[in-house]
Amino acid sequence: MSEPTIEITGVRKKFGEVDVLRGVDLSVERGEVVVLMGPSGSGKTTLVRCMNLLEEPDAGRVRICDCAFDCGGPRDRSARRLAQRARRRTGMVFQQFNLFPHMTALGNVIEGPRQVRRLPAAEAVALGERLLARVGLADKRDEYPSRLSGGQKQRVAIARALAMEPEVVLFDEPTSALDPELHAEVLDVIQELAGEGMTMVIVTHETHFAREVADRIVFMDGGVIVEEAAPDAFFTRPAQERARSFLRLVEHAAAPVSAPLPRQGEEAV
Ligand SMILES: Nc1ncnc2c1ncn2[C@@H]1O[C@H](COP(=O)(O)OP(=O)(O)OP(=O)(O)O)[C@@H](O)[C@H]1O
Ligand SMILES: [Mg+2]
User: Fold this and answer.
1) Out of 145, 163, 180, 210, which could bridge 99 as a Cys pair, Cβ 3.0 to 4.6 Å?
2) Fold (topology level) of 6-253
């Protein structure tokens, strides 16, 4: 097998006195889809932010493709440059979309290619239009984020991440800020990317989706990885009690409490 796209070794991170990551080792192979799960506060967001060095670990090693970064050393110019190179190889999609409100959908998508990749305007626009079409939003090219639904905003954010031609895309709870009826349109786009062989790490509590899209589930608790398994094995017979109780909780939360209310103008059936 070829070298993993991401290799994280002995990664530690403290915030003040709190040990948030307590020695994490994780490899992600090229084309692999890893779903990261775990209770709130277990360190999932911190780990994905450490993967692309948005957050610098206190210790350990992060390698993304050809950029290997030894953490905890001096933050000199060459270290900063290396971190920047590693960051450019990853795309990140956040829970809260983080679109620029003063730019149209197309403007958001082409900002990185124009400013960072220095693509000429016509080339960047062609790329942006292609990517908006790919996430089903060709007709929203000139809309500002305030006029887009949450699901549309998140799809623009995915197009924006892809515009940097990343080697890997990291998703941090991409649907958790969305109304349930908008989840599918975002998950479908992610599933298509998986089908195209994109390497991805996805933090999500959507168990059905995780089961379908993931090659591997990585379960974290208390700042360490406590279980890694193929989705079927993880969801049907998790080895650790901590994983079992977590799954009971998310499945309980996902269960419908009552029949949905009819929408305005619709009759209850
Ligand atoms: N910038 C920060 N400063 C201080 N503490 C932080 C910071 N970011 C995270 N933490 C703490 O680190 C711990 C892990 O946080 P993290 O956001 O990585 O967890 P998570 O698994 O993503 O949780 P959730 O499921 O709620 O998103 C928490 O206790 C959190 O309060
Ligand atoms: Mg989080």
Assistant:
1) 145
2) Rossmann fold (3.40.50)
